[in-house]
Design brief:
Oligomer: single chain
Keywords: Metal-binding, Mitochondrion, NAD, Oxidoreductase, Transit peptide
Radius of gyration: 25 Å
Shape: globular
Strand content: 5-15%
Binding site for (S)-malate: 196, 464, 509
Catalytic activity: (S)-malate + NAD(+) = pyruvate + CO2 + NADH
Helix content: 40-55%
GO biological process, one term: malate metabolic process
Number of strands: 16
Distance between the termini: 49 Å
Active site: 143, 214
Length: 623
């Protein structure tokens, strides 16, 4: 495992520059021709191009291109630049968002989503340019929290298909179905079964919206080529009675498959996509808890896949927890001393606890004693209260962290103790919410946290969307004051504490990690995604913030820096894949050449392979 200090950026020395220039000359495909500047060979002309959002650039087609591609006379004669197109779109957006609302129940964010989606349907390159140049404003529109509204209303919002739909009725046909997708190369798939969308529950086929939103961020943050991404919905039915009775619902109106029948559908899907695209990376998204862990363990050693709810959320939380230690003025190696109360025992909550305990154990020596010591730092509270070994039918994934009888006596706690009772007795350094219960961190809970053993108690209200956040930053800072550290899953504004002081609202968003994990895996050619690669990603995010920022309570960077963060995280993933001998290389860069790259050269390698939204040269070629 690369140490945290190795992840810190260094200046590029002249000898390293010379070495990189030598590599550039040896590998022109990877370095000299950036991902976004590769020419595009088309087998279509005229109106077919204008109707294809992958290739349409509207009035930005030059006159030469119009002649070459059979477009002269099909567009207004004035040729405009891509920036002029964006300026016109942004002017229209400002004017139209007020009128794009579909009645009083249609919020302004949803109106923005409608307008952006129309642009996505017309001109994909321009869509991503707008998104990337305004990422702080539009990430909450294409992703959480607005994507939750989109999923809840997807049948009414549906205008044209995006992605692929596999259903239980397609059993036996998936291997042929994957060849209906037009792209011969797919680098990234985000797949959901719609069973647990954000904190909104079972939304069935409407869950495709979360897969689309995640891939928008893979493109914007990681520079994955948008022509090589694929959102997927696996429709095995829904247990949402409202959808089962809705005549406009677009999915299967039958109850969900369970047991071996369910697993067989997912197995068939995985075999099909990896048969057509052997090097694809599959991210599982918003599967209900009982399947999230089981499917992760079933596939992770065979396929290039990961579960963002389990592993991505855990990585972002670990980065924040390490940042909270730094904000207390302590070294990150003190992390194993933190007492952490976790509210929520679903896939995200248990995923965070597992990953955090492994991080602690590694810092303590990675032996049996270290793991037992790390386990003892967590108190997990679910809907039934504190989880102890006295509970009947403990979830197997939560069992290792159930509090032991011997521990409970001197703590004054018992099975089922309430969250406020646990906080009062434990006096934790951190309370971490992944419960999907809005307002769970009540005034009484926050008052109890005043007696924390830490001088700077940390509140992680990580549930999405916004309405499910365990508390708001305003509520936290009002009770705990300026020393509190606050992070949430969805965006909140900073809090003015008066006298020129600011209570920083950190967004612990998975988008800080999953794009870099995907990109790093792609560019390393790693056969699987290991715990070490995920840990390297989390540690690089934790070390990204400067010391002076962390001491102010800023433990996550602003979304505006997401492209740079992703580049650094991806480079850390590549280097860890090389260190673990999992890397097989990408295109002409084989594993041996990857191993010879320095940290700075690895970052440059990643940067050059990130797609950017520029109009490429288009060449027409007959079939």
């Amino acid at each position: 495992m690369a140490s945290i200090s190795r992840n810190l950026r260094r200046s590029l020395a002249p000898d390293r520059l010379r070495r990189l220039h030598l590599l550039l000359s040896q590998h022109p495909r990877e370095y000299v021709t950036a991902e976004c500047h590769r020419p595009v060979v088309l087998h279509k002309r005229g109106p077919d191009i204008l109707h294809d959002p992958w290739f349409n650039r509207g009035t930005a087609f030059s006159m030469t291109e119009r002649d070459r591609l059979g477009l002269r006379g099909l567009l207004p004669p004035n040729v405009v630049s891509s920036q002029q197109q964006i300026d016109r779109f942004m002017l229209d957006l400002t004017r139209l968002q007020k009128y794009a609302r579909d009645g009083p129940s249609d919020t302004y964010p949803l109106a923005k989503w409608r307008i952006l989606n129309r642009l996505h349907d017309r001109n994909e390159t321009m869509y991503y340019k707008v998104l990337m140049e305004n990422i702080e404003e539009y990430a909450p529109i294409v992703y959480t929290p607005t994507v939750g509204l989109v999923c809840q209303n997807y049948s009414g919002l549906f205008r044209r298909p995006r992605g692929m739909y596999f259903s239980s009725e397609d059993r036996g046909e998936m291997m042929s179905m994957v060849y209906n997708w037009p792209a011969d190369q797919v680098d990234m798939i985000v797949v959901t079964d719609g069973s647990r969308i954000l904190g909104l529950g079972d939304l069935g086929v409407h869950g495709i919206g979360i897969a689309i939103g995640k891939l928008d961020l893979y493109v914007a943050a990681a520079g994955i080529n948008p022509q090589r991404v694929l959102p997927v919905m696996i429709d095995v039915g829904t247990n949402n009675e409202k959808l089962l009775k809705d005549p406009l619902y677009l999915g299967l109106q039958e109850h969900r498959l369970e047991g071996d029948e369910y697993v067989s559908v997912i197995d068939e899907f995985m075999e099909a996509v990896f048969t057509r695209w052997p090097n694809v990376i599959v991210q599982f998204e918003d599967f209900q808890t009982k399947w999230a862990f089981r499917l992760l363990q079933r596939y992770r050693k065979t396929y290039r896949m990961f579960n963002d709810d389990v592993q991505g959320t855990a990585g972002v939380a670990i980065a924040g927890l390490l940042g909270a230690v730094r904000a207390q003025g302590r070294p990150m190696i003190d992390f194993p001393k933190q007492k952490i109360v976790v509210a929520g025992a679903g896939s995200a909550g248990i995923g965070v606890v597992n990953a955090a305990s492994r991080t602690m154990a590694r810092m303590l020596g990675n032996n049996e004693v270290a793991f037992e010591s790390a386990r003892s730092q967590f108190w997990i509270v679910d809907a039934l209260g504190l989880i102890t070994e006295d509970r009947a039918d403990i979830d197997p994934d939560a069992r290792p962290f159930a509090r032991r009888k011997a521990e409970l006596g001197h703590q004054g706690l018992s099975e089922g103790a309430s969250l406020v009772e646990v906080v009062k007795k434990v006096k934790p350094d951190v309370i971490l919410g992944l419960s999907a219960v809005g307002g769970l961190f009540s005034k009484e809970v926050l008052e109890a946290l005043k007696d924390s053993s830490s001088s700077r108690p940390a509140i992680f209200a990580m549930s999405n969307p916004t309405k499910n956040a365990e508390c708001t930053p305003g509520e936290a800072f009002e009770i705990l004051g300026e020393k509190a550290i606050f992070a949430s899953g969805s965006p909140f504004h900073d809090v003015d504490l008066g006298d020129g002081k600011i209570g920083h609202s950190n967004q612990g968003n998975n988008m800080y990690l999953f794009p870099g994990i995907g990109l790093g895996t792609l560019l390393s050619g790693a056969r699987v995604i290991s715990d070490g690669m995920l840990q390297a990603a989390a540690e690089r995010l934790a070390s990204y913030m400067k010391e002076e920022e962390v001491l102010q309570g800023i433990i996550y960077p602003p979304i505006s820096r997401i492209r740079d963060i992703t580049k650094e995280v991806a480079a850390a993933v590549v280097r860890e894949a090389v260190a673990e001998e999992l890397a097989e290389g990408y295109r002409d860069m084989d594993a041996r050449e990857l191993a010879r790259l320095s940290e700075e050269e690895t970052i440059e390698y990643v940067k050059t392979n990130m797609w950017s939204p520029v109009y490429p040269t288009m060449i027409y070629k007959t079939d």
